[in-house]
Amino acid sequence: MKIRTIYFKVPDVAKAAAFWSAVLEVTPHKDFEKWKEISCNNIRLGFLLNDFGDKFSGSGCIPVFEFPDADLPGYIARAKDQGAEVVIDGLDDPNMKSICFRDPFGHEFEFSRFHD
């Protein structure tokens, strides 16, 4: 078994895909009006238009992205430049080794140092 896709329901698919494309420096490999998807190695990160009338902000799903120490500052800077808000900065905490953000749509995500 493996995780194939993690996706967010969003009010604006184009804006969500643009945010993540800029932060992760990848372009969508699936680009439809109501669905866009980018590849993060072997897991797909998708954005589905929330046109079902669901009322929510953000989600309980928190994707965690791991990066080599040398690459992490660039990803953090891009996330902040794209409007991500820092929720918890635990990069210097030896138990956490990560920083949690909230994207412009209220979804939380985490950037982490590689764990041994």
Task: Please provide a written account of the structure.
The protein has one domain (5-50, 63-113): 2,3-Dihydroxybiphenyl 1,2-Dioxygenase, domain 1 (Roll). Helix content is 19%, strand content 36%. The protein is built from 2 helices and 8 strands. Strands 1-4-3-2 form a 4-stranded mixed sheet, with helices on one face. A 4-stranded mixed sheet has the order 5-8-7-6, covered by helices on one side. α1 (13-24) runs antiparallel to α2 (72-81). The two termini are 23 Å apart.
Describe the protein's topology.
Layout: E1 5-10, H1 13-24, E2 30-31, E3 35-40, E4 43-49, E5 64-67, H2 72-81, E6 85-90, E7 98-102, E8 108-113
Parallel strand pairs: 1-4, 5-8
Antiparallel strand pairs: 2-3, 3-4, 6-7, 7-8
Helix pairs in contact: 1-2
Quick structural gist:
This protein is an alpha/beta fold and 116 residues long. The chain has two helices and eight strands, in the order βαββββαβββ. A hairpin with a 3-residue loop joins strand 2 (30-31) and strand 3 (35-40).
